[in-house]
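tokens incoming
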């Protein structure tokens, strides 16, 4: 039996397991089973909350698995929920809290509601990566490059995108109306495109003003999601480098809003809520 807690950040939902008290021997298999929305609990994946590998550098460690069992470096909405769980369940009350991820150790500051539980979290997401090889993106599969926008072919049709890594790879595609995008069709084609050796998270973005965008996301390994925190950060960076938006941005996602700032220290800061939904027990033999 594994004790779990379901949480979400503006609809980007994960199953969280407290690795201080629970043991998960095969997290990839558990993620595939428990994330299934028909036969499992239902989520975008699994996140393990673990002791840090180096207690001098971090207070906690998180490992994040997509719904298909693949492991990713980071999850912006997920890490806010790790912060909330750690504080509210008395694992750590350090302010700021330092959490080790596959993209490095990140610092999180949080505010409390009237009951003394975490409601809003600001994450220092670190510096974005714009160098194509480091994202990684295969340059030979692209053309163009004017204004940090490149072209790639999908089913013999050209798509223009800007590319950013926030510890994981993102493609940002600007469109006139995000509601017209057939995400279930184009998302998998971009995710598995030969240009992306580690697959990619794709974001379709409608610019509403210089400080406000609407976006929809296809996440590698999980499909269409209600929100993507690292993706919203990538959209802020892409908007600034392509001249479409300012460095302070409100990203409107299907699950809610995130406030993003690409600050003068070159770090990207993301602020949003974290919510605990319910807890339960998962049978060990499933």
């Amino acid at each position: 039996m594994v004790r779990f807690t379901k949480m979400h950040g503006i609809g980007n939902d994960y199953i969280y397991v407290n690795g201080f008290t629970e043991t998960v021997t095969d997290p990839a298999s558990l993620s595939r089973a428990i994330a299934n929305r028909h036969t499992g609990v239902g989520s975008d994946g699994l996140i393990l909350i673990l002791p840090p590998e180096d207690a001098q550098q971090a207070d906690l460690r998180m490992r994040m698995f997509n719904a298909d069992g693949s492991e990713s470096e980071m999850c912006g909405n997920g890490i806010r929920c790790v912060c909330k769980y750690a504080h509210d369940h008395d694992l750590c009350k350090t302010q700021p809290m330092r959490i080790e991820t596959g993209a490095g150790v990140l610092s999180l500051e949080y505010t409390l509601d009237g009951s003394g539980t975490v409601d809003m979290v600001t994450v220092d997401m670190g510096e974005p990566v714009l160098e194509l090889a480091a994202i990684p993106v295969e340059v030979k599969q692209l053309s163009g490059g004017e204004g940090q926008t490149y072209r790639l072919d999908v089913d013999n049709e050209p798509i223009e995108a800007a590319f950013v890594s926030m510890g994981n790879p993102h493609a940002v595609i600007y469109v006139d109306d995000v509601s017209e995008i057939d995400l279930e069709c184009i998302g998998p084609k971009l995710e598995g495109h030969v240009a992306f050796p580690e697959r990619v998270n794709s974001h379709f973005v409608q610019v509403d003003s210089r400080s406000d965008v609407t976006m929809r996301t296809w996440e590698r390994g999980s499909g269409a999601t209600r929100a993507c925190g690292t993706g919203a950060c990538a959209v802020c960076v892409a908007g600034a480098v392509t001249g479409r938006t300012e460095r302070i941005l409100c990203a409107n996602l299907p699950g809610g809003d995130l406030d993003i700032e690409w600050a003068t220290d070159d770090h990207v800061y993301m602020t949003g809520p974290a919510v605990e939904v319910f807890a339960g027990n998962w049978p060990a033999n499933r």
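note: The first helix runs from residue 27 to 35.
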